[in-house]
Each structure stands twice: as structure tokens, then as C-alpha cells.
Write a structure and sequence with these properties.
- This protein is of the alpha+beta class.
- The protein has two domains: about 5-95, Alpha-Beta Plaits, CATH 3.30.70.100; about 105-195, Alpha-Beta Plaits (2-Layer Sandwich).
- The chain contains six helices and eight strands.
- It has helices at about 15-30, 60-70, 75-80, 120-135, 165-170, 180-185; strands at about 5-15, 35-45, 50-55, 85-95, 105-115, 140-150, 155-160, 185-195.
- Strands 2-3-1-4 form a four-stranded antiparallel beta sheet.
- Helix 4 runs antiparallel to helix 6.
- The longest helix is centred in the first third of the chain and has 15 residues, at about 15-30.
- The radius of gyration is 19 Å and the shape is elongated.
- The two termini are about 35 Å apart.
């Protein structure tokens, strides 16, 4: 399975208040794991002891590595103990690219560029996908990446992160990385800006 992986975990808990605290703590810890993209916590509309967590990872490998940590690390012991019954866990690939959910105080990098003469959009997109899959999506704080084609023929590379500081750090990581160099060899940068969701 290539590309983003959706991990769907269904379970029951005994004490909703305690489980809420432990789930928030587990989500905060998961944010620092390689390949973490997002975590949507769901509780039963009629029975709050029913839970579903939909966690998006950059790849199936990242999802499996994280599952091993959550299942055995002492850091996640409180979360594991709050679960009274694990109903099921499965991994899925999305037929469309998963949405990037952004919250206040999270960060963004906006890079504008043109294609170099003779470079096709298809070649640029393949290089961009490889750079994201092999490097950027594995960095702490990375939340997602999108390309935008503008009316004048230029492009935007939108990179989403858990903070503006992370967005800057991730951008700095391009230097010396071969996948980033391969992408940069196809484009003419026209500007870069960083921002924060408000």
C-alpha cells in the first residue's frame, strides 16, 4: 500500500471521563511519531462507551510501527488500560487523497514556483510525490502537502505542519536531501512564505 494509510480502531471503554483524558494524552504522544498526519476521535452518539479512532499515517509502514509502540510502550499504558474491549483494528487506503484538517496555531509553508523550460507537469508531480513520501511525511510535525495550479501557469506547494516553527524546520530539511534536490531541479522557485492558522 503506497500513500496515506487510514487506521480505524473500534473499541469500548468503561469510564468516559478517564478515557477522554487518556485518549488526549495518547494523541499528543502520537503527534511526535514518524508519519503521523492526524487523529479523528469519535464517541458513540447514544453510548459514550463506544469509541472509534481514525488515525491517518503517511504510509502503512508508519501505521504498523506506531501500532507496535502504542501496543507495548509504557508511554501509552494509560491509554491501553482505559480500553475495556478492543473490537477491531484495520488499515485502509483512501480512494481520494485524505483531507488535511488544520487547527488554530498550526503552521503552513506556501512555496510558489514555475516549471523549468521543457519540464512536464507530470514529471514535476511524480518528483513531488516521491519527495513527500520518502522524506517530508516522515518528519515530526508534518501534517500534509498539496499542490495548487494557478491560472497563470505557476504552482503553489502548500505544506501543513503542527506549528509555524515545524513548517520552517521541515522546509530547512530540504537542504542536502536527494529527493528534495530532484524536485528542485525541475522548478524555478518564485517565493516562499510561512504562516499560522488563526
Amino acid at each position: 500500500m503506497n500513500g496515506p494509510c487510514m487506521e480505524v480502531v473500534t473499541y469500548r471503554i468503561a469510564n468516559p471521563e478517564t478515557a477522554d483524558v487518556q485518549r488526549r494524552a495518547a494523541r499528543d504522544l502520537a503527534k511526535g511519531l514518524p508519519g503521523f498526519v492526524g487523529w479523528v476521535p469519535l464517541s458513540g452518539a447514544q453510548d459514550r462507551t463506544e469509541r472509534v479512532d481514525i488515525v491517518t499515517w503517511a504510509s502503512l509502514e508508519d501505521a504498523r510501527n506506531a501500532a507496535a509502540l502504542v501496543g507495548g510502550s509504557p508511554d501509552f499504558a494509560g491509554f491501553r488500560e482505559s480500553i475495556s474491549e478492543l473490537v477491531g483494528m484495520a488499515h485502509f487506503s483512501a480512494e481520494t487523497r485524505p483531507q488535511v484538517a488544520m487547527a488554530a496555531a498550526e503552521g503552513m509553508e506556501i512555496g510558489r514556483f514555475h516549471l523549468k523550460p521543457g519540464v512536464s507537469e507530470d514529471d514535476m508531480r511524480k518528483a513531488h510525490e516521491r519527495m513527500v513520501a520518502q522524506h517530508l511525511s516522515r518528519l515530526p510535525g508534518w501534517r500534509g502537502q498539496r499542490l495548487v495550479r494557478l491560472q497563470d501557469g505557476s504552482f503553489l506547494d502548500l505544506a501543513f505542519a503542527d506549528s509555524q516553527e515545524s513548517a520552517i524546520r521541515i522546509c530547512d530539511s530540504w537542504q542536502g536531501n536527494p529527493d528534495c534536490a530532484a524536485f528542485l531541479a525541475l522548478i524555478e522557485p518564485a517565493g516562499i512564505e510561512f504562516g499560522q492558522v488563526i
